[in-house]
Design goal:
Elements: E1 8-9, E2 12-13, E3 18-23, H1 26-37, E4 46-49, H2 51-64, H3 74-86, E5 90-95, H4 99-111, E6 116-120, E7 125-127, H5 155-162
Antiparallel strand pairs: 1-2, 3-5, 3-6, 4-5, 6-7
Helix pairs in contact: 1-4, 2-3
Length: 167
């Protein structure tokens, strides 16, 4: 899968059957890709995106998005991913054969420093890495956006707090 042939729904990135994983540093994504090979995943099952590649894809998606994309959480996830990519996060998009393999992928990635992992099903997008800090998730909506489980509910706040010298 490349940024140009990535699966989309209503014009935005929606890789059904894949786990989308974000890492603060490129080296963490590299380590996770190696760890995933140890789970028996083929190299074709794992696609790596740099922060710049993700930003290009997201900007293209936003420009092409149908108004219908705002009804579900797809657009909220795209905007949350953009906030992370702007801060230099790197990504792995991993094909998973089901819930069990998706959980294994997320755990291997978390052990390598992943901060987010979402498993894209047909009707639901499941967060696989629990956020530290014990902040309960609140209702999400197209108007409120994706709840990042931070005091403000914004992903950009979570990313800023993780930077050296951040809050």
């Amino acid at each position: 899968m490349t940024t140009t042939d990535a699966p989309r729904s209503f014009g935005v990135f929606k890789p059904v059957g894949h786990v989308v994983i974000s890492f603060p540093q490129a080296e963490q994504a590299d380590r996770a890709a190696s760890a995933l090979a140890g789970l028996g995943l083929s190299p074709q099952a794992v696609r790596r995106y740099s922060d710049r590649e993700m930003l290009r894809q997201i900007d293209d998606d936003i420009a092409r998005a149908s108004p219908i994309a705002a009804i579900g959480q797809e657009m909220n996830l795209v905007l949350a991913h953009r906030a992370l990519a702007e801060r230099g996060y790197h990504w792995l998009v991993v094909a998973a054969s089901g819930d069990e393999q998706a959980a294994q992928v997320a755990e291997a990635a978390r052990a390598c420093g992943a901060e987010r992992a979402q498993y894209y099903g047909h009707f639901i997008i499941e967060e696989l890495i629990e956020r530290p800090g014990g902040i309960a998730q609140v209702a999400e909506s197209p108007d409120r956006g994706l709840d990042a489980q931070t005091p403000s509910g914004k992903e950009s706040e979570a990313a800023e707090a993780r930077k050296p010298g951040g809050g």
